[in-house]
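Per-record layout

source: Nonomuraea marmarensis
name: Maleylpyruvate isomerase family mycothiol-dependent enzyme
length: 271
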Amino acid sequence: MNEWDATSYAGKDTILRVVRDEAERLFDLAEPEEAWEAPTACPGWTTRDVVAHIVDTTEGYFAAFDAARGGGDPAGAYGLTGMGARVNEQAVALRGVPQKELLDRLKTDFERMQTILRDLGEDEWGGLTVPHFYMGPLPAYFFAAGQLMDYAVHSWDIRQGSGRAHGLSGEAADLLVPFMFVLWQSTVKAGADLTPFEVGVRVGGVNGGDFRVSMGSGGMTYRKESLDGLPAVIEFDAGSMVLTTFGRSNSGTVRGDLALADRYLNLFFRI
C-alpha cells in the first residue's frame, strides 16, 4: 500500500489532506486587501485572477461529475492547446466580482469538491470515468490531482509575484510527480519533430525514481527502468520537475548530451 500514490485508493486521504493544506495557504495569501491586485507569476494576472481561475475550474469539475453520473451530456474535449487563452477569458470575466464575494465562492466550491472526492468509494476512485473539459475522459482521482495542481502551483504563482524567495511544498510536489509525465504526454507541440530517441529522467522524492522516456511517431511513452546506456539524463528534485513542466522555471541537471536534452525539453508547450 502506497499512501503517496494518488492514483490508488490508498493515497486518497493523503492527497485530500495536502489539497486542503495548499488551499488554505492560497486563501491566506488572497485574503489581504492589498494582495487582490498584486501581480503574480502568471503574465497579466493578479491574485484576483488566480482566484477567479480556480473558481471557474472547480465549477467545471461539478459539471463533469454530474455528467459522469448521468446528469448531463459531456461535451467533446476542448484540448490543452487552447486552454491558456480560454482560462484567461474565463478568469477575466469575473474581474467585477468583489474580493470577499469571490473568495467566499472559492471556499464554498472547495468544500463541495472535497465532499465529492471524499465520497468516492474504492471502485470509483480509479474506476469512475469523468469527462475533463480540456483533456477528455479521465479517472476520478485525476480531479484530486487537478485541485492540487491549481492550489499548489497557483499559490506558488502568488508568492512568486511578491518577489520573495520561496519554494514548493514537498508533499504537494511528491504527489504531483506522476501526473507530470501525463502532462508531458498531453502537451507535445503540434508539428514537433518526433524522430525516435530516448532520454532518462531521474526524479527525487517519494514518487521519484529513474524513468526511461521514449519519443516517437506515436508520441511519448515512459517506464521505470535503468538509465544505463542512455545518451542524456535529466535530473530533477520533485518541485523542480513540477515547476518546469508547468513552465514556471527551466530547471534540472543534464548529464550527457546537452543538445538531446534540450530537444526533449522543448518538445512541449507549457500551460
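summary: The radius of gyration is 19 Å. The CA atoms of residues 54 and 260 lie 36 Å apart.
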